[in-house]
Amino acid sequence: MQSQDVAPRPAPGSGSAADPVVDVEQAEAALVEHYPRLVRIAYLVLPPGLGRGRRVLTAHALTQRALPRGRTATPVIPAQSAGREGDPGYAFVRLQVVRTALEAGLPLRRRAWPRRSQLPPLLPQVWGLRLFPRSGGADELALDQRLSAMSGPARAACVLRGLEKLPDGDVRELLTAAGVTDVDAALEEAAGTEDRYALLDSPEFDPCSLQARPTDLMRRRQHMKAALAAAAAVAVCGALLGMPGDGWGPDGAAAPPYAQNPAAQAALNPALLLKVPAAAWESSARTDFSVWPARGDLTGDNALLRRALAVWARPGESVQVSATPGTPSGGPSGPPQLLYAGTVDNARVVLLHDGLRIVRYAEPRDGTQGAALDFARVDSADRAGSSAVVLGRADGNIRYLTAPWVTKAAERDLLKPGAGAMDLTLTKGATAPMAGPAQSGACTSWNVLQLTDATGTRLLTDLGELVPARLTTGRPGSVKDASGAEALRAWAPYACSLGAMRSSGVREVNAWAYASQSLPDASGSADWVCTRAETWQGGGERVLAQFHAPGSTYGAVAAKAQNVPACGAKDPQVLAGVLWKSGTGSWYLLAAGSRGTSSISATGGVTGSAQGRLLAVRTRQGAQAELKGVLEDGRTVGGLR
Question: Do 299 and 349 touch, CB atoms closer than 8 A?
């Protein structure tokens, strides 16, 4: 066969947009089902000069390498619509087998790397045996001699006509796709064998039904002795190199970090990702991330999902990794759940859930290098805590993916409780972009996400993490969502204080108006509010005691603390004080305790005491005092700090 009979292989993905799309699973199913036929095609198209034994092994190797690396398009599929001839997976695999079998017959060229199909197969291999098909009769021998005299394209045409029963039009298309430049010559050369097509099904040409005979026994014995000597030398060198070490390595008997084991492979296999049915949440006893369905326009893009899983397990130097406090950033322990895979603005985004964490993988849509990997802890999430996840941020705007039970989404400004909410379009659970809260500078607005489902309405605020924080109001232990008009008015003066809680793994923020105090100059009453941020990790809680004087737009932070039980469900007691200047220019120490406080006293730079839970003592600017409160049960509490 002349080298110019077969053109170079077309570039991958060169098929037209109308060509059938084939993924790895579909091609594998076709290959397994029709494996004997595909191997027979390869065996018949391969050049007879290879010898029967090598042709057998090469035919098996070419067939097993015919699977695509990802989703691909097959430009050749016969006109029939039923059976294997209408299966795009079979059409693709057959085309690959014919193409590589033709390439195997090309002569090796100088100054050019050989193609893989032109080299002896590494696998499969059978040591110590020679394998070849069973011998046929005189008719089969005559057909084999006739095929041997043909060129590779002519043999392929004969096989496609006689074994596959394809019309000349389909044969012409398939050979063209396989790289044959002169199809007409191949069809003309294959003419005249029509009366022998039935013999192509003979055991003479079946590389799956084989006979075995031993190879040269003496030569094999010599090769075995040489191999044993080489192995012994390598073992001695390895032992000498390992002697200066300290015995066990730091990981003991553990496997290397990237060892191929079943659990690690399963966790990185996109085909094993858990995809929950769309209506699972309606009948499940659980209402959290575990019943979210897989959404997005790229849930079937195995290449994207494989990259997301691989980067999760082994993030490279170009990957930007972030994790909320207390969130482990290691790889998945098993196949995670797919929540979303799709295009968001200028990125391709994948959201995954492994029961403990939400993981967001994002890569540039234009194919440039680099990716982002974000982790957020979400264990023990309830219905409210699993209402939404951030899909992406761009130009100060945020897109959310909402829970399947969310029926309506809106945007509102927490600083303007009287203003209405602006509806957000929901497209398969994804919201339209909304403006995020103020990041820096003057706090003139604080936009929050308002979600509605069958149980009611709740507010969520972005604090720079994957999962927005839930906003509530009320006494610790009996809080409720900040959704009504009264709750919105209660939150308005303290919305900007949420900026102090960014990037700390906040799960929920509660605002509790624990006291109201009449001012000494009779100018009205001031409110004392305690805002407490609970975290997903169960530690690092942040507490702010805030003082809101009448006529002020914002509350003033009077005291703050971290990792304290104050103002929480376990100990809903709080005491705080502030220096306040009256309208006449006089300075006062004002202090307030929560319900159950029987008396308050001040020492240090200011001295005074009062029965009950309110204290007002005249003082000077810059004075400092120590506060002490006595509860009705006799316990004492100190001022929040």
Answer: no
Structure tokens at 104: 């195997």
DSSP H helical ranges for 34-122: 35-45, 52-64, 88-104
Extract the tokens encoding 396.
């100060």
Q: How many CA atoms lie within 13 A of 469 on its CB side?
A: 29
- Global pTM reads 0.62
Token pair listed for 96? 């690959």
Cα dist from 251 to 248, 254, 257, 605, whole Å: 8, 6, 10, 59
- The answer to whether 189 and 208 have CB atoms below 8 angstroms apart is no
Joined tokens for residue 407: 């029926």
What is the per-residue DSSP string for 105-174?
Answer: TSPP-TTSPPPGGGSPPSSS--TTEEEEEPP--HHHHHHHHHHHHS-HHHHHHHHHHHTS---HHHHHHH
* Rounded distance between C-alpha atoms, residue 151 and residue 169, angstroms: 20
570: tokens are 């376990």
Q: Peptide bond preceding 277: is omega within 30 degrees of 0, i.e. cis?
A: no
Helix count (H) and strand count (E) of the chain? 13, 31
Task: For helices 152-162 and 183-190, give the axis angle rounded to 10 degrees.
Answer: 60
Query: Is the pLDDT at 567 greater than 50, yes or no?
Result: yes
Tell me which amino acid residue 95 is.
Answer: L
Helices (H), 416-484: none
Q: Which SS3 state, helix, strand or coil, does residue 307 take?
A: helix
Q: What distance in Å separates the CA atoms of residue 390 and residue 406, rounded to the nearest whole number? A: 15
- Coil, helix or strand for 600? strand
Strand spans (E) along 252-396: 319-323, 337-344, 347-353, 357-364, 371-377, 388-394
Per residue in 288-304, is it b (16+ CB within 10 Å) or e — as a string?
bbbbbbbbbebbebbeb
**Number of Cβ within a 10 Å radius of residue 420:** 9
User: Could you read off the pLDDT of 272-298 as tens digits, one per residue?
Assistant: 999 999 999 999 999 999 999 999 999
Contact between residue 444 and residue 415 where contact means Cβ atoms under 8 Å apart: yes
- The H-assigned helical ranges of 215-301 are 217-242, 262-267, 280-283
- Residue type at position 246: D
Q: What is the pLDDT of residue 171?
A: 93
Residue 13 near residue 73 (C-beta atoms within 8 A):
yes
- The residue among 71 and 427 whose pLDDT is bigger is 427
Of 4-8, 156-160, 211-215, 558-562, the one with minimum mean pLDDT is: 4-8
- Among 178, 205, 175, 198, which residue's Cα sits nearest to residue 187? 175
- Residue 368 burial (CB count, 10 A): 9
105 contacts: CB under 8 Å, gap ≥ 6: 1, 46, 47, 152
Cα gap 625→588, rounded to integer Å: 12
Contact 211, 134 (CB under 8 A): yes
